[in-house]
Amino acid sequence: MIMNVTKEREELKTLYNSSEIDNKYYFYYDGSGNIRKLYIDKNCFNAEICDYFVLGGLVFTKKPEEQVIIREKFQKYIQLSTEELKCNYICTKTRNFLDVLKQEKLNKFLCFCLEQNFIIHYKVLNFLYWSIVDVIDSINVEIGVNDKNILDNIKTLLYLVCKENYKQLASFFSQYNYPNLKENRKSEFLKGIISFTKKSKTLNDSEKANLLQFLENGFASELIFIKNNPDNILLNDFLNFYMDGIEKFLNSFHVFDEENEIQNIIKSCDFKIIENNSVFDNYVFKNSKDDFYLQLSDVIVGLIRKFRKYLFSKNSEEIENDFYDMRKIQRNNLISLLMIIKKSKQKNSFFLQNIDAVSECEKLANFLEAC
Q: Is the pLDDT of residue 98 over 80?
């Protein structure tokens, strides 16, 4: 499979009036929340739908220090008692992000990252958001809303309705073999979405009216993105998420933690990346036991995922109350994490990518503005 990214990269640089993706960087990637595939089985999702996949880690503007040196520096902060550094060694296995922020090891880890002036990158995927946006994109093929902000807001409204009804979503989707909707069941499917919207306690009357007006256009649409797909499979694999950074940052080098499924897909399709007739071989998969930067990246993406799940679970008022109730170490750890995120975003706007609803991204943006 040959991916010619010439046009895509030029369009990206034109759209954002930027050549930042042409710079040379050294990327390290680990993943958190890799469920391999998302599908519906017996009226249930195979994995938690209110969750995230995060792929990312450290990124350097020049070739990083030798592994031995950086590991020695790290051990001045935290003495490792395991062969391989993992997120659970720093954050423990608690699922509560506020408890994670109490960890003394996390404080030392973040101090080390700040001392080393580390920059991070990540791609965040909200499973619930991913599962429903094709409904809006399909309708938009018919009506052609060109304003991305308007379209993103409509997607967010549908997302909020689905988030409110997530426990019913799998059984609702399975009735229609979603995302493989048959023409004779299109109206019934849309009426179900409209019914959820009308009953919503999350949206105000104006938001309901906007979403309902948009959904009404679906009755005259082919809904092309939610038909002619395999029954009940919402996400077949994560290949595109792994390839995205490689294709964007062609002049950079990318080091991934081993992921057998992705590596096998790449081998089986003889994957090649081409720009202006040049073939790029700019990535490698390594065993994280042999690469301390991959181990540090494991901690980073695990922490980012815990943070995003926390934001997902709270409204803005609850988040604000939590912040004012924090102990000193919790607040310090959170501020340190936000400083790293903010610094990374300022370094290159393409480093931090979100496939997520506007409403979820705004929670993080509010934190970053206050930091």
A: yes
